[in-house]
Protein backbone atom coordinates (compact mmCIF):
# COMPACT_ATOMS: atom_id res chain seq x y z
CA UNK A 1 0.00 0.00 0.00
CA UNK A 2 1.15 3.55 -0.67
CA UNK A 3 0.02 4.84 2.74
CA UNK A 4 0.84 2.97 5.94
CA UNK A 5 2.11 3.64 9.45
CA UNK A 6 5.43 4.82 7.99
CA UNK A 7 3.77 7.50 5.87
CA UNK A 8 3.27 7.83 2.11
CA UNK A 9 5.58 6.03 -0.33
CA UNK A 10 5.19 7.08 -3.94
CA UNK A 11 5.65 4.59 -6.75
CA UNK A 12 8.14 5.80 -9.32
CA UNK A 13 7.91 5.40 -13.07
CA UNK A 14 10.20 2.34 -12.89
CA UNK A 15 8.11 0.80 -10.11
CA UNK A 16 4.93 1.23 -12.13
CA UNK A 17 6.51 -0.09 -15.35
CA UNK A 18 7.83 -3.18 -13.57
CA UNK A 19 4.45 -3.88 -11.96
CA UNK A 20 2.57 -3.36 -15.22
CA UNK A 21 5.02 -5.50 -17.20
CA UNK A 22 4.68 -8.31 -14.65
CA UNK A 23 0.89 -8.06 -14.80
CA UNK A 24 0.95 -8.14 -18.61
CA UNK A 25 3.01 -11.33 -18.59
CA UNK A 26 0.61 -12.80 -16.06
CA UNK A 27 -2.32 -12.13 -18.37
CA UNK A 28 -0.74 -12.71 -21.78
CA UNK A 29 1.82 -15.33 -20.84
CA UNK A 30 5.49 -15.32 -19.92
CA UNK A 31 6.48 -14.95 -23.56
CA UNK A 32 4.60 -11.65 -23.94
CA UNK A 33 6.92 -9.06 -25.50
CA UNK A 34 7.06 -6.01 -23.19
CA UNK A 35 10.36 -4.59 -24.47
CA UNK A 36 10.59 -0.86 -25.21
CA UNK A 37 10.18 -1.35 -28.98
CA UNK A 38 7.20 -3.69 -28.86
CA UNK A 39 3.62 -2.43 -29.24
CA UNK A 40 2.67 -3.72 -25.80
CA UNK A 41 5.87 -2.35 -24.26
CA UNK A 42 5.25 1.11 -25.75
CA UNK A 43 1.67 1.17 -24.44
CA UNK A 44 2.83 0.10 -20.98
CA UNK A 45 5.47 2.84 -20.90
CA UNK A 46 3.00 5.53 -21.96
CA UNK A 47 0.55 4.44 -19.28
CA UNK A 48 3.30 4.17 -16.64
CA UNK A 49 4.47 7.71 -17.43
CA UNK A 50 1.07 9.32 -16.92
CA UNK A 51 0.35 7.19 -13.85
CA UNK A 52 3.67 8.33 -12.33
CA UNK A 53 2.48 11.93 -12.66
CA UNK A 54 -0.71 11.04 -10.80
CA UNK A 55 1.36 9.42 -8.04
CA UNK A 56 3.45 12.59 -7.79
CA UNK A 57 0.29 14.67 -7.42
CA UNK A 58 -0.97 12.33 -4.70
CA UNK A 59 2.34 12.66 -2.86
CA UNK A 60 2.17 16.46 -3.09
CA UNK A 61 -1.38 16.42 -1.72
CA UNK A 62 -0.23 14.25 1.20
CA UNK A 63 2.68 16.51 2.15
CA UNK A 64 0.75 19.75 1.59
CA UNK A 65 -1.30 18.96 4.70
CA UNK A 66 1.69 19.48 7.00
CA UNK A 67 3.32 22.80 7.80
CA UNK A 68 6.88 21.44 7.71
CA UNK A 69 6.48 20.03 4.18
CA UNK A 70 3.85 22.25 2.52
CA UNK A 71 4.97 24.80 -0.05
CA UNK A 72 3.67 27.99 -1.61
CA UNK A 73 -0.05 28.67 -1.32
CA UNK A 74 -0.61 25.43 0.61
CA UNK A 75 1.84 26.65 3.27
CA UNK A 76 0.10 30.04 3.36
CA UNK A 77 -3.16 28.27 4.24
CA UNK A 78 -1.52 26.46 7.17
CA UNK A 79 0.38 29.40 8.67
CA UNK A 80 -2.71 30.94 10.39
CA UNK A 81 -2.94 27.78 12.52
CA UNK A 82 0.43 28.84 13.95
CA UNK A 83 -0.84 32.37 14.50
CA UNK A 84 1.05 34.05 11.65
CA UNK A 85 0.79 34.87 7.96
CA UNK A 86 3.58 35.07 5.41
CA UNK A 87 5.47 38.36 5.33
CA UNK A 88 4.95 39.88 1.89
CA UNK A 89 7.14 42.26 -0.07
CA UNK A 90 7.54 45.69 1.51
CA UNK A 91 8.32 49.13 0.10
CA UNK A 92 11.40 51.02 1.26
CA UNK A 93 10.86 54.44 2.83
CA UNK A 94 13.15 57.34 3.61
CA UNK A 95 13.51 61.12 3.89
CA UNK A 96 14.36 63.36 0.93
CA UNK A 97 15.75 66.88 1.18
CA UNK A 98 14.61 69.12 -1.69
CA UNK A 99 16.37 72.37 -2.59
CA UNK A 100 14.84 74.98 -4.88
CA UNK A 101 12.88 78.22 -5.07
CA UNK A 102 11.66 79.51 -1.67
CA UNK A 103 7.94 78.91 -0.96
CA UNK A 104 7.59 76.64 -3.99
CA UNK A 105 5.04 73.81 -3.74
CA UNK A 106 6.35 70.36 -4.69
CA UNK A 107 3.36 68.06 -5.19
CA UNK A 108 3.16 64.48 -3.98
CA UNK A 109 4.42 61.98 -6.53
CA UNK A 110 7.55 63.98 -7.37
CA UNK A 111 9.80 61.30 -8.90
CA UNK A 112 13.50 60.88 -8.11
CA UNK A 113 15.99 58.03 -8.48
CA UNK A 114 19.24 56.63 -7.20
CA UNK A 115 22.25 57.82 -9.15
CA UNK A 116 22.91 55.80 -12.33
CA UNK A 117 20.24 53.20 -11.60
CA UNK A 118 16.64 52.26 -12.29
CA UNK A 119 15.64 52.43 -8.62
CA UNK A 120 12.92 55.08 -8.39
CA UNK A 121 11.28 56.85 -5.45
CA UNK A 122 8.33 59.23 -5.16
CA UNK A 123 7.31 61.74 -2.53
CA UNK A 124 4.29 60.69 -0.46
CA UNK A 125 2.87 64.16 0.28
CA UNK A 126 2.90 67.76 -0.84
CA UNK A 127 5.61 70.01 0.57
CA UNK A 128 6.19 73.77 0.47
CA UNK A 129 9.87 74.78 0.53
CA UNK A 130 10.80 77.17 3.32
CA UNK A 131 12.16 80.69 2.94
CA UNK A 132 15.62 79.25 2.34
CA UNK A 133 14.33 77.05 -0.44
CA UNK A 134 14.64 73.78 1.45
CA UNK A 135 12.24 71.11 2.63
CA UNK A 136 12.27 67.51 3.85
CA UNK A 137 9.59 65.04 2.75
CA UNK A 138 9.00 61.30 3.01
CA UNK A 139 9.70 59.18 -0.07
CA UNK A 140 8.64 55.65 -0.95
CA UNK A 141 10.23 53.25 -3.43
CA UNK A 142 8.17 52.74 -6.57
CA UNK A 143 8.91 49.00 -6.65
CA UNK A 144 8.51 46.47 -3.87
CA UNK A 145 11.59 44.73 -2.52
CA UNK A 146 14.92 45.20 -0.81
CA UNK A 147 16.50 46.97 -3.79
CA UNK A 148 14.87 50.13 -2.43
CA UNK A 149 17.16 50.02 0.61
CA UNK A 150 19.91 52.39 -0.50
CA UNK A 151 22.59 54.38 1.27
CA UNK A 152 22.40 58.01 2.35
CA UNK A 153 23.02 60.72 -0.25
CA UNK A 154 22.59 58.34 -3.19
CA UNK A 155 19.16 59.51 -4.38
CA UNK A 156 20.25 62.61 -6.27
CA UNK A 157 18.63 62.41 -9.71
CA UNK A 158 15.39 64.24 -10.58
CA UNK A 159 13.28 62.16 -12.97
CA UNK A 160 10.52 64.66 -13.75
CA UNK A 161 12.31 68.04 -13.91
CA UNK A 162 10.87 71.08 -12.17
CA UNK A 163 12.36 74.48 -12.93
CA UNK A 164 11.89 75.47 -9.27
CA UNK A 165 13.72 72.41 -7.90
CA UNK A 166 17.50 72.52 -8.24
CA UNK A 167 18.66 69.44 -6.31
CA UNK A 168 17.56 66.52 -4.14
CA UNK A 169 19.26 64.06 -1.80
CA UNK A 170 18.22 61.49 0.77
CA UNK A 171 19.60 62.67 4.09
CA UNK A 172 19.67 59.13 5.51
CA UNK A 173 19.55 55.63 4.12
CA UNK A 174 16.19 54.25 3.06
CA UNK A 175 14.92 51.16 4.83
CA UNK A 176 11.99 48.81 5.23
CA UNK A 177 12.13 47.22 1.78
CA UNK A 178 12.15 43.42 1.76
CA UNK A 179 11.41 40.46 -0.45
CA UNK A 180 8.54 38.06 0.08
CA UNK A 181 9.27 35.62 2.90
CA UNK A 182 10.51 32.29 1.60
CA UNK A 183 8.90 28.96 2.50
CA UNK A 184 11.87 28.07 4.72
CA UNK A 185 11.72 31.37 6.60
CA UNK A 186 7.95 31.07 7.06
CA UNK A 187 8.21 27.50 8.39
CA UNK A 188 10.94 28.43 10.88
CA UNK A 189 8.97 31.44 12.12
CA UNK A 190 5.84 29.31 12.47
CA UNK A 191 7.74 26.77 14.56
CA UNK A 192 8.93 29.52 16.89
CA UNK A 193 5.41 30.96 17.09
CA UNK A 194 3.87 27.64 18.11
CA UNK A 195 6.47 27.26 20.85
CA UNK A 196 5.58 30.70 22.21
CA UNK A 197 1.80 30.47 22.42
CA UNK A 198 0.38 32.16 25.52
CA UNK A 199 1.63 35.09 27.57
CA UNK A 200 3.98 36.08 30.36
CA UNK A 201 6.87 33.88 29.22
CA UNK A 202 10.09 34.67 27.40
CA UNK A 203 8.98 32.43 24.52
CA UNK A 204 5.70 34.33 24.24
CA UNK A 205 7.50 37.70 24.17
CA UNK A 206 9.97 36.46 21.56
CA UNK A 207 7.19 35.03 19.42
CA UNK A 208 5.25 38.28 19.52
CA UNK A 209 8.34 40.21 18.44
CA UNK A 210 9.05 37.80 15.58
CA UNK A 211 5.52 38.32 14.26
CA UNK A 212 6.59 41.81 13.19
CA UNK A 213 7.32 41.71 9.44
CA UNK A 214 10.48 43.82 9.67
CA UNK A 215 12.07 41.88 12.56
CA UNK A 216 14.74 39.42 11.40
CA UNK A 217 15.88 37.89 14.69
CA UNK A 218 15.08 38.10 18.39
CA UNK A 219 15.84 36.45 21.72
CA UNK A 220 14.58 37.17 25.23
CA UNK A 221 16.31 36.44 28.55
CA UNK A 222 15.13 36.80 32.15
CA UNK A 223 17.02 37.28 35.38
CA UNK A 224 15.86 35.33 38.42
CA UNK A 225 18.88 36.35 40.48
CA UNK A 226 19.39 39.06 43.05
CA UNK A 227 22.12 40.84 41.08
CA UNK A 228 22.30 42.06 37.47
CA UNK A 229 23.39 39.38 34.98
CA UNK A 230 26.24 39.49 32.47
CA UNK A 231 24.08 41.43 30.00
CA UNK A 232 23.06 44.11 32.50
CA UNK A 233 19.57 42.72 33.10
CA UNK A 234 18.44 43.81 36.60
CA UNK A 235 16.94 41.39 39.09
CA UNK A 236 13.37 40.28 38.32
CA UNK A 237 13.51 41.67 34.79
CA UNK A 238 13.47 40.53 31.17
CA UNK A 239 15.58 41.83 28.30
CA UNK A 240 14.78 41.38 24.59
CA UNK A 241 17.55 41.54 22.00
CA UNK A 242 16.13 42.41 18.57
CA UNK A 243 17.44 42.74 15.01
CA UNK A 244 15.27 44.89 12.73
CA UNK A 245 11.84 46.41 13.35
CA UNK A 246 10.85 49.86 14.60
CA UNK A 247 11.25 50.92 18.22
CA UNK A 248 7.53 51.50 18.67
CA UNK A 249 6.43 48.15 17.24
CA UNK A 250 8.98 46.21 19.28
CA UNK A 251 8.05 47.96 22.52
CA UNK A 252 4.35 47.27 21.89
CA UNK A 253 5.10 43.59 21.21
CA UNK A 254 7.04 43.29 24.49
CA UNK A 255 4.33 45.10 26.45
CA UNK A 256 1.56 42.86 25.11
CA UNK A 257 3.19 39.66 26.38
CA UNK A 258 5.26 40.59 29.44
CA UNK A 259 4.16 39.48 32.91
CA UNK A 260 2.71 42.03 35.32
CA UNK A 261 5.24 43.52 37.73
CA UNK A 262 8.24 42.42 35.63
CA UNK A 263 10.53 45.13 34.32
CA UNK A 264 11.23 45.07 30.56
CA UNK A 265 14.84 46.25 30.58
CA UNK A 266 17.03 47.41 27.71
CA UNK A 267 19.23 50.13 26.27
CA UNK A 268 16.32 51.55 24.23
CA UNK A 269 13.12 52.71 25.94
CA UNK A 270 9.77 53.61 24.42
CA UNK A 271 6.60 54.83 26.18
CA UNK A 272 3.61 52.60 25.45
CA UNK A 273 0.13 53.73 26.48
CA UNK A 274 -1.74 51.01 28.38
CA UNK A 275 -5.51 50.44 28.55
CA UNK A 276 -5.74 52.92 31.42
CA UNK A 277 -4.14 55.62 29.26
CA UNK A 278 -1.01 55.57 31.42
CA UNK A 279 2.46 55.52 29.82
CA UNK A 280 4.55 52.39 30.42
CA UNK A 281 8.29 52.59 29.79
CA UNK A 282 9.24 49.48 27.82
CA UNK A 283 12.89 48.65 27.26
CA UNK A 284 14.69 46.38 24.81
CA UNK A 285 18.19 46.15 23.36
CA UNK A 286 19.26 46.30 19.75
CA UNK A 287 21.18 43.24 18.62
CA UNK A 288 24.85 43.53 17.75
CA UNK A 289 25.39 42.57 14.12
CA UNK A 290 28.56 40.52 13.73
CA UNK A 291 29.97 40.58 10.17
CA UNK A 292 31.20 37.22 8.94
CA UNK A 293 33.88 36.73 6.27
CA UNK A 294 34.32 33.54 4.25
CA UNK A 295 36.92 32.09 1.89
CA UNK A 296 35.41 29.24 -0.11
CA UNK A 297 37.53 26.91 -2.27
CA UNK A 298 35.60 24.50 -4.49
CA UNK A 299 36.51 21.78 -6.97
CA UNK A 300 33.95 21.48 -9.75
CA UNK A 301 32.99 19.31 -12.70
CA UNK A 302 31.23 20.08 -15.99
CA UNK A 303 27.84 20.29 -14.24
CA UNK A 304 28.86 23.46 -12.40
CA UNK A 305 26.65 26.26 -13.82
CA UNK A 306 28.00 29.48 -15.30
CA UNK A 307 26.42 31.45 -12.44
CA UNK A 308 27.67 28.88 -9.92
CA UNK A 309 29.74 31.33 -7.87
CA UNK A 310 26.68 33.53 -7.35
CA UNK A 311 24.67 30.45 -6.34
CA UNK A 312 27.34 29.43 -3.81
CA UNK A 313 27.24 32.88 -2.25
CA UNK A 314 23.45 32.85 -2.18
CA UNK A 315 23.06 29.52 -0.36
CA UNK A 316 25.59 30.60 2.27
CA UNK A 317 23.88 33.95 2.80
CA UNK A 318 20.47 32.29 3.07
CA UNK A 319 21.84 30.03 5.80
CA UNK A 320 23.77 32.61 7.86
CA UNK A 321 21.59 35.61 7.06
CA UNK A 322 22.52 38.91 5.47
CA UNK A 323 22.48 40.70 2.13
CA UNK A 324 22.71 38.83 -1.17
CA UNK A 325 24.18 40.06 -4.46
CA UNK A 326 20.76 41.31 -5.59
CA UNK A 327 20.31 43.22 -2.28
CA UNK A 328 17.82 40.63 -0.98
CA UNK A 329 18.00 40.39 2.82
CA UNK A 330 17.61 37.00 4.54
CA UNK A 331 17.02 36.25 8.20
CA UNK A 332 19.23 33.16 8.45
CA UNK A 333 20.60 32.14 11.83
CA UNK A 334 18.83 33.38 14.93
CA UNK A 335 20.43 35.48 17.60
CA UNK A 336 23.15 33.73 19.57
CA UNK A 337 23.54 30.88 17.07
CA UNK A 338 27.14 29.97 16.23
CA UNK A 339 28.33 29.70 12.64
CA UNK A 340 29.23 26.03 12.11
CA UNK A 341 31.72 25.27 9.35
CA UNK A 342 30.40 21.77 8.57
CA UNK A 343 26.89 23.13 8.04
CA UNK A 344 28.21 25.74 5.62
CA UNK A 345 29.94 22.99 3.63
CA UNK A 346 26.71 20.98 3.53
CA UNK A 347 24.80 24.00 2.22
CA UNK A 348 27.42 24.59 -0.47
CA UNK A 349 26.83 21.11 -1.92
CA UNK A 350 23.30 22.24 -2.85
CA UNK A 351 24.87 23.87 -5.91
CA UNK A 352 25.27 21.28 -8.69
CA UNK A 353 28.67 20.33 -10.07
CA UNK A 354 30.68 20.68 -6.84
CA UNK A 355 33.08 17.83 -6.09
CA UNK A 356 34.84 19.14 -2.99
CA UNK A 357 34.59 22.17 -0.68
CA UNK A 358 36.75 23.80 1.96
CA UNK A 359 35.67 26.90 3.85
CA UNK A 360 37.67 29.25 6.06
CA UNK A 361 35.88 31.66 8.40
CA UNK A 362 36.79 34.98 9.96
CA UNK A 363 35.28 37.72 12.12
CA UNK A 364 37.69 40.45 11.02
CA UNK A 365 38.38 39.64 7.36
CA UNK A 366 42.09 39.19 8.16
CA UNK A 367 42.62 35.99 10.13
CA UNK A 368 40.92 33.00 8.49
CA UNK A 369 40.74 29.38 9.67
CA UNK A 370 38.39 26.41 9.55
CA UNK A 371 37.11 26.87 13.11
CA UNK A 372 33.49 27.56 14.00
CA UNK A 373 32.58 31.15 14.91
CA UNK A 374 31.16 31.68 18.41
CA UNK A 375 28.30 34.21 18.49
CA UNK A 376 27.19 35.83 21.76
CA UNK A 377 23.62 35.75 23.05
CA UNK A 378 23.04 39.39 22.14
CA UNK A 379 24.74 39.04 18.74
CA UNK A 380 23.60 37.82 15.34
CA UNK A 381 25.87 36.72 12.50
CA UNK A 382 25.46 38.59 9.21
CA UNK A 383 27.06 37.76 5.87
CA UNK A 384 27.31 40.17 2.97
CA UNK A 385 27.96 38.93 -0.57
CA UNK A 386 31.00 41.21 -0.77
CA UNK A 387 32.53 39.37 2.21
CA UNK A 388 32.64 36.01 0.42
CA UNK A 389 35.66 35.04 -1.66
CA UNK A 390 35.06 32.02 -3.89
CA UNK A 391 37.93 30.19 -5.61
CA UNK A 392 37.03 27.63 -8.29
CA UNK A 393 39.30 24.77 -9.30
CA UNK A 394 38.07 22.81 -12.32
Structure, explained:
By secondary structure, the chain is α+β, with helices and mostly antiparallel strands. Helices cover about 25% and strands about 30% of the residues. The chain has 8 helices and 20 strands. The protein has helices at about 15-30, 40-65, 70-80, 185-195, 200-210, 245-255, 310-320, 340-350, and strands at about 5, 5-10, 95-100, 105, 110-115, 120-125, 125-130, 135-140, 155-160, 165-170, 215-225, 235-245, 265, 270-275, 280-285, 290-300, 320-325, 330, 355-360, 380-394. A 6-stranded antiparallel sheet has the order 9-5-6-8-3-10, with no helix packed on it. Strands 11, 12, 13, 14 and 15 form a 5-stranded mixed sheet that branches. Helix 5 (about 200-210) packs antiparallel against helix 6 (about 245-255). The longest helix is centred in the first third of the chain and has 25 residues, at about 40-65. The protein starts with a strand and ends with a strand.
